[in-house]
């Protein structure tokens, strides 16, 4: 009879983090996302720990430096927003309605915090960031293409146009509370969405903005 091998308890602790440890990590990321949006990526880490309700040691145990925390926040926002887009694609038979649901969810996920953090704090080519960014961009592009094919979305807008406006409209002024801005952001986003509907009442200057255009350095 062959003996059954049992995993060592110490090994299980390493490979399967405790539920409370996972909750602490999520609280840190949520608090960091809120504070980065309100005050920028250089907010003191002890302030983030205080808002998350954990000790400074817990923050550093999960994220050895600021770049690691900022990168986790950016990837988390991108992943959650991509999931919202994927769910909207799967659940709605109306392509423009799916677009509306995505835009409002993106605002709730604080996607506006991404722009200053990506450009100022860490390697834009980090593999985690590239994977999250590619997933989001491909999903949104598919989503907009379907709405254009259905004759619901004006043809002269690109993914870059959408992402820029969502970021600009959903980012509160520096030093203000996110919850205060929430009273207005969905109203303003809906005004923007109504301007995306086809047929378009006007001709936009220039050409549709792509995500590649957003990454291209200014001359």
From TrEMBL:
Keywords: Coiled coil, DNA-binding, Transcription, Transcription regulation. Residues 126-153 form a coiled coil. Residues 44-63 bind DNA. SUPFAM superfamilies: Homeodomain-like, Tetracyclin repressor-like, C-terminal domain. InterPro entries: Homeodomain-like_sf, HTH-type_TetR-like_transc_reg, HTH_TetR, Tet_transcr_reg_TetR-rel_C_sf, TetR_SbtR-like_C. Residues 22-81 form the HTH tetR-type domain. It comes from the Bacteria. This is TetR/AcrR family transcriptional regulator. It comes from Streptomyces coacervatus.
